[in-house]
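Database export, one record per block. Field names are fixed; values are copied verbatim from the stored entry.
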Amino acid sequence: MKKLLILAFLCSALSCKNDKNSNAQTINTKLSGPVFGTSYSIIYASKIDYTKQIDSLFEIVNQSMSTYLTNSKISKLNRNEEVILDEHFKNVFLASKEIYQQTDGAFDPTIGNVVNAWSFGADKNKFITDSTTIDSLMRFVGFNNLALSGENANRVKKQHPNTYIEFNAIAKGYGVDVIGKFLERKGLKNYLVEIGGEIRARGENKDKKSQWRVGLDEPRFDGEQSVYKAISLEDVSMATSGTYRKFKVDETGNRFAHIIDTKTGYPSKTNILSVSVIAEDCMIADAYATAFQAMGIEKIKLFAQSHPEIKAFIIFENNENEFETLSLNNFPD
């Protein structure tokens, strides 16, 4: 469950309409709407309406990497059809390969079929997948079994035809970056792009003459939302991954997250409730937020020591079932 951010500016500004003319004194344009199975909101310091261009970019990314579109490039690739990759697909593929290696496989876009097999969307709070099913699917998991090939590296070579690729844990962040970089090409230096809780912030909020303020969700098991704390963002991106709304409990009371251990194919037993990651690009933050859920706190600490450019804020339960937090690499207060 990735949409864990309550944006401070959402409280009154957005209603899925372009409200750039709602106040003649404002500098910002505010856009919002549905995308990627969730919603987006964009604020930028200009009166120009870029809705059509933004919608076109969303469609291009969808046609490249959406597993929900039968004719997308990734869907064709999963059917082992001939596919010539576009630059968006190659960008995400190469970033995924790098993060797969950096996290020792904790981030693995080939785990999707195993995640689906566990049926975390089922109504009953129990596991319904047997070991034979998991073992058979795990034979084809491993991003190291994929490589770019062909002229201009515009094809994917699979070691196993049954390997299934799904970029859901990184493509949304990449979509945020695509829109942000589009705005930058238009000469805009002050904007905030948010898709399903993943954020890219540059410059400042010109209407408020201050840094962009966003809120981190408080982990709650009752389905309600409240802000745990607010932070300021400037010239960075942030993504959050959480487990407290999508988990299952075994017969002994152990809680298992919907994050699947890419080594075993089984749900992760974890005390981590949410992880927020700050990086330069949202694609990177998005992927590491997912990977950190699977890695566990001690491995995250070790990773952070050698990657000072990645900031993280973790909310977890201690042995007394109390909330604790861990801030790494100067995550903002």
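Remark 1: Confidence is low (pLDDT under 50) at residues 1-17, 19-23, 121-126.
Remark 2: Helices lie at 51-65, 73-78, 87-102, 112-117, 131-138, 171-185, 282-295, 297-306.
End of record.
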